[in-house]
């Protein structure tokens, strides 16, 4: 079976968020899986792709891609990443820019055209290479037109006669919605501009196009697959379309790269440990971290951490409001960038509580590892969370998460106040300041019982957060499609 993985980003080549981690990890897993004869990954060739860490080889020749009634030139670069062959689509007009999707003034005005070009460049690029995929696995709205193209403009193309598509929704809040002029740029037939196909409130919605035309749709946790069909709060306007295709929709929980996120071998942290030795390793990490950040050095004080994009979805505003009542009882460290109002609130919290609160206004990979290893609690009360990786990383490092019971957080963090010996973290039933204060108080109380706390930590650390089970679920769907 030949698989073509396609995304707008993938770690370690280009990354803005969790999408890159997932596509990178899945690509590596697929490439080594039984029954996969060939695995290729297609990405845009952004300006700083790979950061100079990889050797790129130009594929001889070029080809043309129809966009907005004209032909644009595309060329390919190739890199070998273990068993994964990676192809980068080059077009300087579209991809030679400082950011992947946005610049200093916001989203690029031509993002619609950039990913029309990329989608068709992937299909034409496969033909250019002679790579005939059995499955094209598409990720998020930037690749959403590919399933639609295969079922419309490429329907009679013999090269793709046996190709099936799987589309994964990583976050339905980002759909790729554009006006009617984008439909014209994309080159579709007006017969397909109907509500049951490509039309969406007078325009073109890339994610809807994929949901309608993909052979299978997946999303990144079982609970989220149900939530996005339940109503507009979660479905963001696509709940009806998703319900109409519910028999083809599957929730597959994400995993994490357990080689990168391993407290026993992590070179970023102060001392390695595992579930048998965390009671020595974590206190050492915490004391060293407190010293580095200028927090009061106290191994007995609870240290709560947060590594996050700073926005409303993540519930960071709730954490700030709740924290004021606990700065005399515990310590806090925040790492992230995002909304200006939340950034200012965190700066104010840290300034008013020296030695108790630290705020690092950046994304720093080493600092993130140190937070996961050094903290006792990890704060993640997201208002919605398709899957979430941070809570799984935190648990792997023995840092108990506090989450809102939604999406993948519900599927991974288990809190039973009547059976703490079987719990691996804490959860609240609804994201509110009062609920967060209540669970923080509960955590402080439980922390005083080392036996109970350590039992929860062991539960967290012994959980299986690897990609093995999840990737096998994807492969099961791929094999099901190929057998049709």
Structure, described:
The chain has 484 residues and is α/β, with parallel strands linked by helices. It folds into two domains: 269 residues, Glycogen Phosphorylase B (Rossmann fold), CATH 3.40.50; 184 residues, Glycogen Phosphorylase B (Rossmann fold, 3-Layer(aba) Sandwich), CATH 3.40.50. Helices cover 37% and strands 20% of the residues. The chain contains 18 helices and 21 strands. The strands form four sheets. Strands 1, 2, 3, 4, 5, 6, 9, 10, 14 and 15 form a ten-stranded mixed beta sheet that branches. Strands 18-17-16-19-20-21 form a six-stranded parallel beta sheet, with helices on both faces. A hairpin with a 2-residue loop joins strand 5 and strand 6.
